[in-house]
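With this grant's support, we have settled on a layout for protein records. A representative record follows, to show the layout.
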Amino acid sequence: MANLPNLSPRDMLDIIFENRNRAYGAYALRREYPNHLLRALGYGLLLILGFLLVPILLRAVSSYAVETSVGPDIVYEPRTPPVIEMPKTPPPAETQPPPKASSIRFVPPAPIPDDKVPDETLPPDQSTLANTDDRIGTVTQAGDPDVPPVLTSDDGRGHVIEPQAPTPPDDIFNVPDLQKPPMFPGGEADLLKYLSQNIRYPEIARETGTQGVVAIQFVIGKDGSIEDVAIVKDIGSGCGKEAIRVVRNMPRWIPGEANGHPVKVRFTLPVRFKLQ
């Protein structure tokens, strides 16, 4: 055997089965054995590599699903109201003074000795005042008795008459633009309590494990009623419809105020759905 030349496995196989029946099956099995061995080795390596890569792929897919499925929570952050510069009003144009109305001078009575009372300081008697259309004033002057009264900024006694603040228009305000924002009866704690007691988790969302935040936007009227309820952000599975139902059934809010008057306010409320 040591003097035999270097033969390949196929040549050795042909020598062994030279005078034997090659169609029996042993010849074919031994001839294909190296190929089967290499193929089994390759499959084994691929299987081991797959076991090593599966946990890495699962972690990557789960982190990507969490990042894309959960949206940002909508949190109301109060901000400083913007400074609105009022336009400079031009000086009032010169107008003609209103026509004077006729009046009778009336001097309040004062304790003065009879011998020192001048005739011109005596107030008019009751019959004179009853039979005239003239007004009571500080001087006696002639004028038109039909002139309507004029409201001035001074009532004659040094008291400045301040004009009433104008009623704001029937616009919808945002919360940061108000001096007094709207409030749920009892405050934020009672609002969270109301939501937790009245929200019924949708059965579909419970079966599919749907969780997250639904953002609802609505308008609080001047009387505190809820109007124009709409979904800003939804997580599906019926959670948005349930949030709208709960918001529409809320009690009247304490309305917001601008310049001392109740106004309509647009409000955004985040409603969190979380399985226990």
